[in-house]
């Protein structure tokens, strides 16, 4: 299926905030999903849709987070096209629920061609592919390790396990220094080794477009704070802000 418009979004971090803030984030995101359904815009999620997510398959446990958002995505996935969901370092512990919701699920990275442009999509915390030469940090590898996850789930109940994840997520988010330079350097290195037109990621929460001699790197920033995302249409690829009240994309400045 061919689309004239493609949307890229990351770092929603549903569940990280107060009830009122979470409610507003959910409402704005649902308005965006419905807009994309109505206008037939392809959606790509580049990680951290949730601030903490871990399913316990042996106990049939699925977090009670963002159900209205997932319902809206499921409707989009079934009626328009499966949204690509590249899981991030906060929501990669999925054991079937997102696939059941109709997502095109990816735990690593995805290379897409859009209007003859080669686009590398990833969350931004590294990938499991030697040819990309962007290894994950040891701690992020541990969090994705099957043995670690099984041990974690045996030691902690779903309720305690999720509460621990939430507390740890809050701690690490406070430590974030929002430094754009590491991902800028990484993008420049990837461009030097691969034939790409764009690299798009999230992860460091700093929305920006950086142009290098071999291509353009776009960081999506955060939906929870900036409401920023990238939009590809007949004018090219640009960084925009979603204005839910008017249902418009506004150029990001």
Summarize the structure in words:
With 253 residues, the chain is of the alpha/beta class. It is built from seven helices and twelve strands. It has helices at 19-39, 67-79, 97-100, 138-143, 146-155, 158-175, 181-193; strands at 6-9, 42-45, 84-86, 104-106, 109-114, 117-122, 198-201, 208-212, 215-219, 228-233, 236-243, 248-251. A seven-stranded mixed beta sheet has the order 4-3-2-1-10-11-12, covered by helices on one side. Strand 10 and strand 11 form a beta hairpin. Helix 1 (19-39) packs parallel to helix 2. The mean pLDDT is 94.
- Range of helix content: 25-40%
CATH class: Alpha Beta
- Largest sheet, order of strands side by side? 4-3-2-1-10-11-12
Beta-strand percent range: 15-25%
Summed up, the domain count is 1
- Encode the helix/strand succession as letters: EHEHEHEEEHHHHEEEEEE
Cα distance spanning the termini: 32 Å
Which CATH-level-2 architecture? 4-Layer Sandwich
Quick rundown:
The protein has 253 residues and is α/β, with parallel strands linked by helices. It is built from 7 helices and 12 strands. The chain has a single domain (6-251), classed as 4-Layer Sandwich (Purple Acid Phosphatase, chain A, domain 2), CATH 3.60.21.10.
């Amino acid at each position: 299926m061919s689309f004239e418009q493609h949307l890229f979004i990351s770092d929603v971090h549903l569940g990280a905030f107060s009830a009122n803030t979470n409610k507003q984030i959910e409402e704005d995101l649902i308005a965006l999903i419905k807009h994309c359904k109505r206008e037939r815009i392809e959606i790509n999620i580049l990680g951290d849709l949730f601030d903490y997510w871990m399913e316990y398959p042996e106990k049939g446990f699925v977090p009670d987070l963002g159900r209205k958002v997932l319902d809206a995505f499921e409707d989009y996935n079934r009626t328009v096209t499966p949204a690509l969901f590249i899981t991030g370092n906060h929501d990669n512990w999925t054991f079937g629920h997102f696939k059941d919701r109709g997502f095109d699920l990816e735990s690593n990275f995805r290379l897409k061609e859009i209007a003859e442009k080669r686009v590398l999509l990833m969350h931004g915390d590294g990938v499991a592919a030697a040819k990309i030469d962007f290894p994950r940090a040891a701690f992020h590898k541990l969090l994705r390790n099957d043995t670690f996850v099984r041990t974690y789930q045996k030691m902690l109940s779903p309720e305690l396990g999720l509460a621990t994840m939430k507390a740890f997520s809050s701690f690490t988010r406070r430590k974030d220094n929002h430094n754009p330079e590491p991902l800028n350097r990484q993008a420049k290195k990837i461009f030097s080794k691969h034939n790409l037109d764009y690299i798009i990621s999230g992860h460091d929460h700093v929305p920006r477009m950086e142009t290098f001699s071999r291509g353009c790197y776009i960081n999506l920033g955060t939906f929870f704070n900036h409401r920023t995302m990238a939009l590809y249409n007949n004018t090219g690829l640009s960084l925009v802000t979603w204005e839910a009240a008017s249902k418009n994309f506004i150029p990001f400045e």
